[in-house]
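User: I'm preparing a small set of examples for a lab meeting where we compare how different chains pack in three dimensions. I only have the primary sequence for this one, and I'd like the structure in token form so I can line it up with the others. Please keep the answer compact; I'll paste it straight into my notes.
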Amino acid sequence: MRKTGLCLTVLVCLTLLNPFPPQLRAKMSVFSPQDMIGISDYIVVGEIKKDIPTKKLNAEYTNIRKEVRISVESVLKGSMAQKEIVLKRDFRTDIMRTDGVDFNFPKKGTKVMLLLRDYERSGISLTYANSICVINKGKVQLYDGMGFGSKDVTFEPNDYEKACQTFYDKRK
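Assistant: Understood. Below is the structure token output for the 172-residue chain.
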């Protein structure tokens, strides 16, 4: 009985001393630049028409809805008849986001290349982080890009830019 009580006490202490809950220890998946292009259902070139953030206050939390409208100039991957796409995302301010996709877009009028997926539940949305590129005079630049890495491999923002530039040059 004493041994069981001691083990239980040690287990409780170790649990309480853990400074990071499991959600904070979670790691984002690492997709190579080529994998990002490969898993995208659509890759489109278009222009930002509107970027509308709205706030909805609730008694318990604030919900922020971001909506961006993009006119589609060309589809580099996939088949899409739409001439305009609307991407929407809802964020609650009381919950930490762990998906890695910021959903920040360049200003209205900017020419962009977007990597998109058609998700079963939510419809068309950004493939992952590093899914927004700005196109300026034929040069593809990652918008708000970030690096990813693990023990074995690391990808920097310029790695994603190079892969997107190569894809863009081959398909335009």
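A couple of notes for your slides: Confidence is low (pLDDT under 50) at residues 11-17, 19-26. The beta strands are 42-57, 62-77, 84-92, 111-119, 123-126, 132-136, 139-142, 148-149, 154-155.

User: Perfect, thanks.
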